[in-house]
Design brief:
It is a single chain. By secondary structure, the protein is mainly alpha-helical. It has 2 domains: 111 residues, 434 Repressor (Amino-terminal Domain) (Orthogonal Bundle); 71 residues, no CATH class. The protein has 11 helices and 3 strands. Strands 1-3-2 form a 3-stranded antiparallel beta sheet. Helix 1 crosses helix 6, helix 3 crosses helix 4 and helix 3 crosses helix 5. 14% of the residues are buried.
C-alpha cells in the first residue's frame, strides 16, 4: 500500500499527472459507490427507484464511463435515499485519504435515511431509558449508606463527598443552596448540619424514616 510520501511524490511529478489522478479517482470511485448502492437490486429495479432508465444506471456503474452529470448523481442519491457530498480539497487531504484506503478496498454499503433514522431512534430510546432514575425504595438508603434505624449518626465527610458531592468547605448555609440536602434526601437521608468534630468538619445526617424517633 502506498504511503503518503509515495503518493505525494507521484503527485509532484506534474500538473498533468495530478489532473489524471484526480479524474481517475472521481470516475472509478463514484461508479464503485453506485454499485454498492444497488445493494442486491437489479439495475432496472434501482433505475425505477431513481426515476432513471436502466441504460443510465448501466453507464453509471461502469468505472470506465465517467461522464455522469450532477443531475444524474442527484437522482441516483435520491433513489437510494442517501446524500452525496462533492467538495474541493487540497492535494494533501487527497493523499491522506488515498493512504487510508485499506488494501481490500472500501465498503460502499451506505445506510439510507430510514435505516439511520431507526438506528438513531433506538439509540435515543436507550439513552432516555438510561437517564431515567428508578424511584428510591425503602431498601435503597441502607444500600447506599447502611445506617442503623433509630440512631443519630455522624458519617465521615469522605463517604458523603464520594456519594453526594459534599465538599469539606461546605458551610451550614450552603446545605440547601448547593443542593447537597436534596441529593441526600433522594436517597432517604437528611443532612442536618455541618459541624466540627475532632478538629475537622463533618456532616451530621439521619435517615428520613428516623424522624420523630430520635432522642
Amino acid at each position: 500500500m502506498d504511503t503518503f510520501n509515495d503518493i505525494w511524490s507521484k503527485l509532484a511529478d506534474s500538473k498533468e499527472y495530478r489532473e489524471e489522478f484526480v479524474g481517475s479517482l472521481l470516475k472509478r470511485g463514484t461508479a464503485l459507490q453506485i454499485q454498492g448502492l444497488l445493494d442486491g437490486l437489479s439495475q432496472k429495479q434501482f433505475a425505477d427507484q431513481a426515476g432513471l432508465t436502466q441504460g443510465v444506471i448501466s453507464r453509471a456503474v461502469d468505472p470506465d464511463y465517467g461522464n455522469l452529470t450532477f443531475n444524474t448523481v442527484i437522482k441516483i442519491a435520491a433513489g437510494a435515499d442517501v446524500a452525496f457530498i462533492g467538495k474541493f480539497v487540497p492535494f494533501s487531504e487527497l493523499a491522506k485519504w488515498v493512504e487510508s484506503i485499506p488494501e481490500g478496498g472500501v465498503s460502499f454499503k451506505i445506510p439510507n435515511f430510514e435505516e439511520e433514522n431507526k438506528h438513531l431512534a433506538e439509540v435515543k430510546d436507550e439513552l432516555t431509558a438510561a437517564s431515567i432514575k428508578k424511584p428510591p425504595t425503602k431498601a435503597e438508603p441502607s444500600k447506599v449508606l447502611p445506617f442503623p434505624i433509630g440512631q443519630r449518626i455522624v458519617q465521615h465527610q469522605r463517604i458523603v463527598q464520594q456519594q453526594f458531592g459534599y465538599d469539606a468547605n461546605t458551610q451550614n448555609d450552603d446545605i440547601q443552596t448547593n443542593g447537597y440536602g436534596d441529593r441526600l434526601k433522594s436517597h432517604g437521608i437528611e443532612l442536618l448540619r455541618i459541624k466540627s468534630h475532632g478538629g475537622r468538619q463533618e456532616p451530621e445526617i439521619r435517615r428520613l424514616e428516623d424522624r420523630g424517633r430520635l432522642a
